[in-house]
Automatic annotation (TrEMBL):
It comes from the Bacteria. GO terms for biological process: CAAX-box protein maturation; proteolysis. The chain crosses the membrane at residues 7-29, 49-74, 185-208, 214-234, 241-260. This is CPBP family intramembrane metalloprotease. InterPro entries: Rce1/LyrA-like_dom. Keywords: Hydrolase, Membrane, Metalloprotease, Protease, Transmembrane, Transmembrane helix. The lineage of its organism: Bacteria, Bacillati, Cyanobacteriota, Cyanophyceae, Nostocales. Residues 138-250 form the CAAX prenyl protease 2/Lysostaphin resistance protein A-like domain. GO terms for molecular function: endopeptidase activity; metallopeptidase activity.
């Protein structure tokens, strides 16, 4: 029963992001369909079916990641406040307020660092990517980034992948008697952040060809925030990583808007 409760809590949270991501993806899918020849288009399922299949694909990936995290996270000292409270009925952590401050601070710092790095790299980036970066996001895209990125991606990358990497190294190095060493956590944080960066390459490839500079930029920027969110998951909780990721997108949107007005 406890496993079902854990799964239900995280699946509902993650599904909100998937629904928003699916809705936000409709214009891009429509653009791709418009480029197809009539002969090929006849063989393609209707737009509604395509979006349902996309949502189903992400939902399956979410479910797998949740189950992996349920099996691995608590065994290696990684946790979630929601699960602690609603499933295990533990008392609220006395450091919760400090944790939230750290999350907001990391989110703000990450937004500033990434915007500065992105500005430094602007001269060597393709024109199409510069134009995409300077375009002010719609409210739907911003909310999608906050909910899908801040919640769903954290369940996938930190709760699922990072927990699994820590558990594999912990078992492989036969540290099963005690909690994993710091090196294991740090290695898992970096590896999960690298995967996080690699998974953003398809979105970049939809805008410009993947040249070495474009790839380095995607891995560097996403890797930095991935490491920051992974550190928060290790030191505090899944919710700390989520809040930092959500606040990162919020701060980045505000700062980007200010820079655009000053330019």
């Amino acid at each position: 029963m406890a496993i079902l409760k854990q799964f239900g809590i995280l699946f509902v949270l993650g599904s909100v992001g998937i629904v928003m991501f699916t809705i936000a993806s409709i214009p891009l899918v429509e653009q791709k369909l418009a480029k197809l020849s009539p002969e090929i288009l006849e063989k393609v399922p209707p737009l509604g079916i395509l979006m349902l299949l996309q949502g189903l694909q992400y939902s399956i990936l979410l479910a797998i990641s949740i189950l992996i995290g349920i099996g691995c996270a608590y065994r290696v000292g990684l946790s979630s406040h929601l699960i602690d409270h609603w499933v295990f009925h533990t008392a609220k952590s006395p450091s919760f307020a400090v944790e939230m401050k750290w999350s907001l601070g990391v989110g703000a710092a990450a937004a500033i660092v990434l915007l500065l790095l992105d500005q430094l790299m602007q001269p060597v980036l393709p024109e199409a990517l510069r134009a995409a970066n300077n375009k002010e996001p719609s409210w739907l895209n911003l909310l999608t980034a906050m909910f899908y990125g801040g919640i769903t991606e954290e369940i996938l990358m930190r709760w699922g992948l990072m927990s699994l990497l820590v558990w594999i190294a912990w078992k492989g190095l036969k540290q099963g008697v005690t909690l994993p060493s710091q090196g294991i956590y740090q290695g898992a944080i970096v590896l999960a952040a690298l995967v996080f960066g690699l998974l953003h390459l398809p979105a970049t490839a939809a805008i410009v060809p993947l040249t070495p500079v474009v790839i380095i930029r995607a891995l560097l920027l996403n890797g930095i925030v991935g490491i920051a969110f992974g550190w928060l998951f290790w030191q505090y909780s899944l919710e700390a990583a989520m809040l930092a990721h959500i606040s990162f997108h919020a701060f980045a949107s505000v700062l980007s808007g200010l820079l655009a007005r000053l330019a």
